[in-house]
Amino acid sequence: MKDYSNLEKIINYSFKDKKLLENVFVHRSYLNEHKNFYLPSNERLEFLGDSVLSLITSVYLFKHYPFLKEGEYTEIKSAIVKTESLAEAAKDINLDRYLFLSKGEEKMNGRKNKNILADCFEAFIGSIFLDSNFENAYQFVVKFLFKEKLDKIVRNKEYQPFKSRLQELIQAKYKKLPEYKILEEKGPEHKRVFKVGVYFNDKIIGEGVGMSKKEAEEKAAKKAFVNFKSL
To answer: Largest Cα–Cα distance of the chain, in whole Å?
Structure first.
């Protein structure tokens, strides 16, 4: 068994069940090469951790942001528990160092793979919950995932779709609305690809491509928002 004492110091929690902790790091690819390994993959722990994280986020938002609407809670939740955020939190506490990966995954930089890291972080939450209780899992998530990040998301309304943020930005400055136009449509009916441009004062300020008009508009709005903010 690996030595997890440094990790336990970082999170200020010592596991009673070390096997449970080790299980967090077992990626399914490792088991393809080590059929007789004494632990299963971390997928069940990840499934549990995902549910625990969802509840923790809901409770935290309910307690700390009573002025928001239900729809906003849902959008904020999606923004904070997305793969990139979880992967970043996993790297912050060095979970990547302990992963059990196949040789193939190692060669493909599996320790930097955002999906693998995010899954590992969720499995870690699940393991803390099983090893102790909800409160310890809650405190861990607040400290190592939310930190100042969630407050920043709420304060800057980063949870809102870029279409809403762009409209708000332009309306506040110019009292006008941006306009979206389809620039190109191609592909078969069941696999249509749309290219959309967003215009302001008859000038294109962003373009986006997506499998639906909505997706293309959101991508165009994101580019336009970044361009507008830098003006």
So the answer is: 66
Paired with 181 in beta bridges are 197
Q: What residue ranges define each of the domains in the chain, with the CATH number in brackets?
A: 5-155 (1.10.1520.10), 162-229 (3.30.160.20)
The model carries a pTM of 0.75
As a whole number of angstroms, the distance between CA 81 and CA 66 comes to 20
Does residue 231 surpass a pLDDT of 70? no
Give the number of other CB atoms < 10 A from CB of residue 37.
Answer: 12
- The tokens describing 198, both together, are 């967003």
Tally DSSP H helices, then E strands, for the chain: 12, 3
203-210: average pLDDT? 91
* Residues β-bridged to residue 182: 196
Residues 6 or more apart in contact with residue 63 via CB below 8 angstroms: none
Any residues with CB less than 8 A from the CB of 132 and at least 6 apart, and which? Answer: 13, 16
Active site residues: 50, 122
